[in-house]
Amino acid sequence: MTSSAAGERRRVRRSPATIPAVAIGAVVLLGGALAVAELCVGEPMLAPPRALGLLTHPDGSHEALIVQTLRLPRVLLAVAVGAALAVAGVVMQALTRNPLAEPGILGVNSGAALAVTFAFVVLGLQGFGSTLLVAAVGAAVAGVLVALLGGVGRSASLSRLVLAGVALTAVLAGLTQALSLIDPAQYSRIRIWEAGSLAARDAPTALWVAGIVAVGLVLALAIGPGLNLLVMGEDAAHALGARVARVRTAGLVAVVLLCGTATAAIGPVAFVGLLVPHAVRAFTGADQVRTLVASIVAGPVLLLAADLIARTVVAPRELPLGVVTAFLGAPVLIALVHRRRRS
Fold this sequence. Notes:
By secondary structure, this protein is mainly α. It has a domain at 18-102 and 198-342: ABC transporter involved in vitamin B12 uptake, BtuC (Orthogonal Bundle), CATH 1.10.3470.10. Helix content is 78%, strand content 0%.
């Protein structure tokens, strides 16, 4: 009787809605653990109860100052940027109907990089707050140029949009390289920013970034049902009543907000927008709304884990964050290309 009942229980499967909920809950717990680890790791090393105690009841000590002004903004920035890049990846892959698409395909990263280089070399800006604003403007301008070249209306060509992004990225990268070589004294600063880092960011900056990212996330979630129709093809989407031009325009605005703000905040970090969507689809399936929600949770986990690796592998020195995400994402990209070739 007992073995029979156990066999019946093993044959009972969870509903499709339950599996993502359980997975998302597990990812949230993992993200919380990584966030606590971020508060503890560094010099000085703190025990989790001590770090959380200083977070909620600062005692004015040097350790409390480090937790409040250095490590907490780093955690907030990792959460905001991770969610932004992951959701931007989902939107880009839905808009282009290409699972290998990545947010940088719109030239947003290159626009931000050129703007920061211009700020360093020509304007002589030094503070991160000033370069954050300049980078955001550069990312937005690059996104608008790609939209104008590729078109965003009903008659717009998707392939032309992608080609415009690739071409503009190449042009802006060349201009950035030429501009950075004009002033060798600023070259190292530019290279450090392009490598990506969550360090040296204060709480006001992290809150500003989180606020802008929140707007982009709401916009992306709002067009989730439209993305579900768009991935079936534009003709099918039109036949099912989708407003393709409106969904595509809103999607491009969301990508510019999310990817542009993230790039301006920490530099052009690659592979997050490629790796996270493919990882969460193993649990959410093809539904874009569920994939967007899961990516909001999984993106921060990936960036927190990458930042911990960057801070601990060669401690007390720190690896560039972009190097770690590339190390994690490159094998996934190779596997995806190999699978597409076989199929």
